[in-house]
What we know:
Layout (H helix, E strand, L loop, with lengths): L7 H14 L5 H23 L12 E6 L4 E6 L6 H8 L6 H9 L22 E9 L6 E8 L2 E7 L5 E8 L14 H12 L6 E7 L8 E6 L16 H10 L9 E8 L3 E8 L16 E5 L2 E7 L11 E5 L16 H24 L1 H20 L6 H4 L4 E4 L6 E2 H6 L7 E6 L3 H5 L5 H5 L4 E4 L4 H8 L1 E2 L2 E5 L12 H10 L1 H10 L6 E4 L8 E6 L4 H8 L10 E6 L4 H12 L1 H19 L6 H12 L1
Parallel strand pairs: 1-7, 11-13, 16-17, 16-19, 20-22
Antiparallel strand pairs: 1-2, 2-6, 3-4, 3-6, 4-5, 7-8, 9-10, 10-13, 11-12, 14-15, 14-17, 18-19, 21-22
Amino acid sequence: METKQFQAESKRLLEMMINSIYSQREVFLRELISNSSDAIDKIYYKALTDDSLTFDKVSYYIKVVPDKGNRTLTIKDTGIGMTKEELEKNLGVIAKSGSLAFKKENEIKEGHDIIGQFGVGFYAAFMVADVVTVISKALGSEQAYKWESHGAEGYTITPCEKESVGTDIILKIKENTEDESFDEYLEEYRLKSIIKKYSDFIRYPIKMDTAIKEPKDTEEITEEQTINSMVPIWRKNKSELTDEDYEKFYQEKHYGFDKPVKHIHINVDGTIRYNAILYIPENIPFDYYSKEYEKGLELYSNGVLIMNKCGDLLPDYFSFVKGMVDSEDLSLNISREMLQHDRQLKLIAKNISKKIRNELQSLMKNEREKYEQFYNSFGRQLKYGVYSDFGTHKEMLQDLLMFHSSKEKKLTSLDEYVSRMKDDQKYIYYAAGESHERIEKLPQTELVADKGYEILYFTEDIDEFAIKMLMHYKEKEFKSVSSGDLCIENEDEKLSESEEKEHMELFSSMKEILSGKVTDVRISKRLKSHPVCLTADGEVTIEMEKVLSSMPDNQDVKANKVLEINSNHEVFQALKNASKNDKEKLSLYTNLLYNQALLIEGLPISDPVEFTNDICKVMV
């Protein structure tokens, strides 16, 4: 019996495949089962055009048979089988795909699709087997043939006996090594788990003889069981499915331990065909904001799992979404673990992002309580999305943002805020602070609140950065209540301007006392009852400074602080008197007011001892 050599290129490819192409050895079973499914598909297609053939689906299946005693694993199918010539052509030349050729010859474009188009999947068997034997009897042939190979050195083809049409692939499983155990590929539970993981939705039954021990029996009996589900939920008609069906699938796939807030079932039959089931979780995963968290959707190619986490299908701002995508139009590389071209994937990802955004908007509008529940978990991520990539995604996300406000005392959207704006209101006003309670007490809010304007409350460190990137919403700009100019017409404005000139010497002295700490000292146009506050000139606000200074890389970014004095407060008269009569007391009062303003802002006082001593000086 002559051993035939693989072609030189094929030999090198086989060696590479055994050692490096596949990331996990377990995928060999996925590849062989996919090939078996192809073989049954081919009979199905022939039956469509050949009146002498009838396709009775009950007669077609795949069976996986482990044999620990002989250390073999057999994958049987009742598919179309291969002639001697087809064995030579398909298995003698690595990367020769019989499935792909069949697909081209029959111009299969719609409906059922051929899974194994790549020609190398069969050779993944050599990752776990020393010897691979293929016994096949082709449809319409009387003679069966055996193809056998020990690996890269070559193969033999000899006549053999086989009763029924189909193919048996027999793997002689490798012996264990110090580094790796191959015994697992003979264990029933392990084989079942691999089948469920990768091939659960192959459309033909995948059977195994399963050991069953009845409670009253002392001996185990075996029973043939179908391991795979066959019909995936995403291929069922939406009208057939209930919320419970989707929730059950969520739990079965271990997408989360919570109950999803929303499920999205997508069926697209356009430029690229795909099905998807997406879930918006209720609770944030414990590792969501850690390096360990991995975003992505399960990616299937015609029902066969290709990737557990395909990160390219989700933008970072929707990284909380769980679920799967199945498409038969993806161009995959030879290991099926990576995409050859990302054009199809980008198109799917773009469509999915729009669908998620639309569903979230619908949830906000129609199921507000559920949306707020979701937003409390993942609103921060949406804000990061607005801020990241220089605001590229702000149009996509702006309508999903929500904040508490001075009027609502609950979450409100930007659209709702704008709809309530007064006719004379030019800006969307906001205040930033550690809590709603702290913000409500901020002196800077007095004038805006007095005008009856609503104020958004920013309590998360990302809030102001996101809004700065957003810049405006529905042609209304955002303005901090602590900004240098609130652009509010104030009856006292002209009076304060004249007072500025009158007391220029006082403010010049105070600015000198606070040299390096503030950029200016001026009469406040916003304070009503409070004596003093800090505001900021420029793009960096005081709250932003606090956030940046707390970061690990210690970004030394400072706001241009302005000390504002309420000229209607009793303290102002004390300043004027000190300016005329006691320069030392003016310095004392100025430092006290500055430190008081720092405390109101939640900023640290540079010298607490000096501050307490200054208070004591005032008291005596």
